[in-house]
Amino acid sequence: MTKILVTGAAGQIGSELTQVLRREHGDENVVATDIKPPRFPGAEAGPWVPLDVTDRAQVERVIQEFGIAEVYHLAAVLSASGERDPDRAWRVNTEGLYNVLEAARRHGVRRIFWPSSIAVFGPKTPRVNTPQDTILAPTTMYGITKVVGELLCEYYHRRYGLDVRGLRFPGIISSATPPGGGTTDYAVEIFYAAVRGEPYTCFVRPDTVLPMMYMPDCLKAIRLLMAADPARLRYRIYNVTGLSFAAEELARELQRRVPGFRVEYRPDFRQDIADSWPRTIDDSAAREDWGWKPDYDLPRMVEAMLAALRERRARGEL
Ligand code: SER
Question: Which residue puts its alpha carbon closest to atom 1 of ligand 1?
Answer without folding.
Answer: 171
